[in-house]
Amino acid sequence: MLPTLCRMNCFGAAKYIAWTKGAGYGDVMNISELKTAVDAEILSQREETIKLAFRLASIPEAGFEEFETMKELERQLAACGVKAEVGLARTGIRATIGPAGAPNLVLLADMDALPTRGAPNDIMHSCGHHAQMSIMLAVFSALHALGIPEKLGFRLSLVGAPAEEYTHLDERKALRVKGEIRYLSGKQELIRLGVFDDAACVIKYHSMADSPERMATVNGTLNGFVAKQALFVGKAAHSGAAPDQGVNALNAAVIALMAIHSQRETFRDSDHIRVHPILKEGGTTVNTVPDRARIETYIRGASIEAIQNAARKVDRALGAGAMAVGASVTVSTTPGYQPFRPSDALGVRLAASAARFLPETAIDLHDYSYASDDIGDVACLVPACQLGFSGFSGTIHSADFKASDPERAYILPGRILADLVLDLGADGGRKAQEIRSAFKPTLDKAAYLAYLDSCFEEKTYSFKD
Q: What CATH number does the domain located at 10-222+339-448 have?
């Protein structure tokens, strides 16, 4: 039998029975006692939480293709007596409990796995998304088992978001052409569909590799990015007998790569620019002058302005490669993610929750990662926070990334996040609503979607004789 998380420990059951006979939870225990009850419930689910993480790790699926993962999450929620909405943005899932109209706290988890060379079938959860799902489901099921959202008067949603990893762009563009998606990331699609429209606060967790002292990060910031695909077209010819009659598209791509590298000294340190192209295609046979070559790259940065400035330099470099050999290049740009700027108000409360379980010296409050995540898109519209937590060894996005300490990898983050939910959800979600009311979004939803639409662009530069 596959594991399910929905069960109640004896301590939680006794308190729940006493509670439901009274006028409300305030008649039975204060928030401190309530936190103890929820923590005990999460600890009672320890084995099921770890088993679920392993189960999810055994069914890795690419973005917008997480159908088995969606079914597993739906099954887990059904075992708790919670009906989920499925098929959001193809494979996303949402379940909500608590009184209608109350402030909604959203537990957000990524669902997709990552192409990873050296893993079985070259795909695995090398970014730890299996842990995200298992942890968030443990928090959701523990709070549901004790009936807490209903009695405290807040709403709680669990959202599984597809396609956080910005990969398989050709396949996603094909889905876009078919009208199955409009944007190329899961959270962008969920935003478009209105999944976060009623969110007061969004809470997220991410796995990270162990370090000597740091066990957790609170509200570490992230780069944003745009993505580019460049197709160089030359002319085929016999590479030995008549190379002079060909136009070498591979050479155009190589020159473009060198031109990109030549721009690096112009990137300001404060802009946190990262440009990391790969060569996707460079010829079909060594005996023929390559007539096609393809480059794919992200341009990451700390602000949209910095990203756009670096992107213009990359466009010039791509054009320069084509110009040098007399080829053409078509540059396709797609919107990546917004820089992640988490809510300071949520960060203060998340740090306090983390400090209940960890020494303060083990909590990093000033982390800046040059990576990207579409939580940045959510956070420009709604207050959001993210807990980073250790318990993994190896290198993230590599086949050697694995849990080294199951307690830290799968259990302790959920205890911290449940503590945060109770702080925010107390008194009818008053604190959550205060944070939401004071929040100033970077963009409103209409302007955000218009920005995404404006980023879809295709230009061709031809220098053929």
A: 3.40.630.10
Domains 10-222+339-448 and 224-337 share a fold: no
Reduced DSSP (H G I as helix, E B as strand, rest coil) percent helix, strand, coil of the chain, to 5 = 45, 25, 35
| Domains in the chain: boundaries | 10-222+339-448, 224-337
Mean pLDDT by 10 residues, the chain (465 residues): 54 43 48 95 98 98 99 98 98 98 98 97 98 99 97 98 98 98 99 98 95 88 98 98 98 99 97 98 97 99 98 98 98 98 98 96 94 98 98 96 96 98 97 98 97 98 89
CB atoms within 10 A of CB 390: 21
Tell me, letter by letter, the H, E, C secondary structure of 133-153. Answer: HHHHHHHHHHHHHCCHHHHHC
Contacts of 427 (CB under 8 A, 6+ apart): 152, 153
- Which CATH architecture best describes the domain 224-337? 2-Layer Sandwich (3.30)
Tell me the CA distances in angstroms from 78 to 72, 81, 83, 95, 178, one per residue in order. 10, 5, 6, 10, 32
